[in-house]
Specification:
The chain has 199 residues and is of the alpha+beta class. Helices cover 52% and strands 18% of the residues. The protein is rod-shaped and about 165 Å long. It comes from Paenibacillus aquistagni.
């Protein structure tokens, strides 16, 4: 047994089912209609309610839908090409020296499965990627290290500025002391001059 897919009448995936391993293709699911007319004339009436698709479903499809119309056209084209090949093969004379007819290329029937949603609808379903906690923590640690380095650089700059200010203060103190000595010398001279003048 192998998995097949039950679809609605438009080819939209409904549910999986099991079929024999040898079953391949698309088969209608019919529902019997019991009308008075059909009972009277013993004519079975039915309507198609969906399909059993015994063709592998590719992975990664969103809301898978089987394209019944394209499949049916491709199947008819393949059957016609195969019948032509059989006719050519039956008319082929191996002793004629001509090349034997080539069979038609096989068809990848699973190509008729497609997404039932648009790209925009699929994008809306995809989860927003969450950052890896390890990367987030690593990024935060790097950020903190950079901030600490910047603070250290600012501290060095402030320390250098403080040393420069202290040197300027010491220089000003030295100039102030020199001025004080000069003033004191001038006062002494003034006192000496006044004392000489009073004598």
């Amino acid at each position: 047994m192998k998995e097949a897919i039950i679809t609605d009448i438009n080819g939209l995936y409904i549910e999986p089912t099991l079929v024999a391993d040898s079953v391949t293709g698309v088969f209608p699911i019919e529902e019997s209609l019991n009308s008075e007319h059909s009972k009277q004339f013993a004519l079975p009436e039915s309507k198609i309610t969906g399909y059993t698709v015994a063709i592998p479903l590719p992975d990664g499809l969103y809301d898978p839908t089987f394209d019944l119309h394209r499949y049916e056209q491709a199947r008819k084209d393949y059957e016609k090409a195969y019948a032509d090949y059989q006719n050519q093969l039956s008319a082929y004379d191996p002793e004629s020296g001509e090349a034997a007819p080539e069979p038609p290329l096989s068809v990848d029937w699973s190509q008729f499965w497609r997404n039932g949603l648009t790209e925009e609808e699929i994008e809306a379903l995809r989860p927003i990627p969450q950052p890896d906690p390890t990367e987030t923590l690593g990024g935060q640690m790097v950020q903190r290290e950079l901030e600490a380095l910047e603070l250290r650089e600012q501290s060095v700059i402030l320390g250098t500025q403080m040393v420069e200010k202290e040197l300027q203060i010491l220089e000003l103190k030295g100039k102030n002391e020199a001025l004080d000595r000069t003033i004191a010398n001038l006062k002494l001279r003034l006192i000496e001059l006044e004392a000489k003048a009073n004598v």
